[in-house]
Fold this protein.
Amino acid sequence: MFPRFTIVLAAAFAAYPLLAQDPPKPKTVDTPPSATSAAADPALDEAEKSFQASQFSEAAGKYRAILEKNPASIEAQAGLVRSVLREQKLDEASELVSKFESASPNAAALHTVAGEVRFRRAEMPEAEKEFRKALALDGNQVRAYLGLAEELDSFGLHRKAYDLLEKAHEIAPDDPRVMRRWLGRLPRAERIALLERYLAAPEAEDADELRNLQHYLEFLKALGSKPSHACRLVRPVASTETPLRAMLSGPSHISGWGLKVGLNGHAGNFLVDTGASGLLVGRKEAEKAGVVRISENEVGGIGDKGRVSGYAGYVDSLQIGELEFHDCVVHVVDRMNLEDEDGLIGADVFRAYLVSLNFRERKLKLEPLPKRPDEETSAAPSLDTQGNDDSPQKDKTDTSEPTGENADKKPASAVVAPRNLPKDRYIAPEMKTWAPVFRFGHEVLVPTKVNELPRVLFLLDTGAFANTFSKRLAEQLGKVSSDDRMRVKGLNGNVEKVYRAPDATLEFGGLRQKNVNTVTLDLTNISRHTGTEVGGILGFDMLQLLDLQIDYRDNLVNFNYDPTKLGLPNWDKKK
C-alpha cells in the first residue's frame, strides 16, 4: 500500500527565522578569556588534558571534583558540560548548562557551551541565540565564532560563516579548534603542514574522525606534487537526462534506483544514494575497471560490524550517460554488503548541477543551477566523486597548487582571493517554495515535524530502505517495542537491535504523511559523526513516490508530489 500524503502550505523559513540574519557585531573586551584559562589552575589543567585526550568520562570526574571545592568556577562548569556532551549524554548536558546559566547569566563561556549543546541537539534557533549572546558579551569567544560559523554554513550561509571563521583565526590561529576548521582554506602543501601539526596534538577527537584525518593526510601526501584529480568535464554539457535503472534486493523487489556508470570503459550498476558521498566502488568492480590506488581509506555507514576498509584511487575516465569526465578520484571498499549493486553514487557528486531524481519517469535530470544576480556566466561543471566531506572542511575557495613559472610563488599565509570567497545561498524566484535544508558535507537534513514534538532533522536518504526513526526520537513518542524478526542491513553489516515506534505523522517540505509501526534504530553514531542530532531517515519506499529536486549549492530541496500521476486517489490538499 502506498503511503498517503497531504499537501501543507507554509512559509519556507518559518521554522528557522534567525539564520537569514547577518552575523553578530561582537563587543571586543580588553582582557581575553585566556588570561583566566585552565593553565592558571593545575586541577583545571589536568581536567583539560583529559578532555583533549578524548578521555571524556575521566575529564568529567575531574571537573566535578573542582566544582565540589569551587562551585562558581565557570571554566569547570563549561568543561563538565562539554565532557558530558561528548559522552553523548545529551539530556544531562542540557540540564547542567541550564543550571549553570541561571546562576551566571552573564558568563559568555556558558552561553558558548550552551550553544554547543543546543546545536548537538539540533535545536538550531536556540543554538544561534546562545552563540550570539556569547559574542555580545565577549568578542574573544573563539568557540562561539566557530559554533555559529558551523551552524550558518550548514544552512547555506557560507560567506557569513567564512567571515566568522576568519575572525576566530585572527584571534587564535594556533588554537587546535581553529586549526581544524582552517585546514580546508589552504593549498595542499600548507594543508599538509597544518594537518601534521594538528595531528601531533589533536583536541578531543572522536576515534573514527581521527582515523579519517590520518587517512586524509596520507591521501594528500600520496598525491605529492601531482595536480589534484579535478574530474573535469571533457565536453560541455549544460543539461542532460540519464535513465534510472531498477536495483533489486530479490527476484522482484525494487530496493532503489541506479545509474549505469562507466569506469575506464567498464560499465557497472551504481545505486543512487543521497545518504552516501562521492563514488563508492566494490573491490571486484574496481579491479575490473583498473582503478589506480592512491592511499588507504575506510568508510562508515549503517551496521554493527564496524567501518569498511578500502582505498582511495583514481580513474582516467568516468562516463554517466552523455557526461564524460577525466581524472576522477573514487573510493574503493572491500565489501559492499549489497545485492544488486557494483557500487554507490552519492547524489552530491552532481552538486555543480541542479539535480532532479524523477522516480516516476525513471530518469536523472541535471540542469544548470540558477545564475546568481552578480554572475555573468555559470561556472563549468565538474564531478565531485571524492564526496564533499572528503576533506576536513571543503569549501568553494581555490586551494589549487601554483604550477609552472608560478610554482615558487606560494603565499606565506592562507589568503583567499576575493573572487573565490564562498557565497551565501541564493534563492531564485522560481525556488521560493522549496524547502530550506541543513547540509553537513553530503548529508541533507530536512526540518521535520513529528506529531506535536519540536521540529527535528531527518536525513534524506534514497539508499535507506524505508522511513526510519531514531530510538531517541521514538522514545519521546511513546512505548518502543523490539522487533527480533526485522533484519536491517547496511554498508557496515547487519543491525543487531531493531525496534518499532508508535504511530506518528511527519510534516516536511510541504507534505504530511502518517507513519505506522515505523522501523526504529539507534542512530547515535550517525548523529555523533554528523555533529547534530539526526532524528530519523526519509527513506526509499516513501521517496520513490516523489520527484526530488536538490540544489546542493543553496541548500534547497523540492518535494514534488502528484498522486494522479502515480495512479493514486487525488487526496485533499490542506491549506
Summary: The two ends are 25 Å apart (CA to CA). The mean pLDDT is 85.
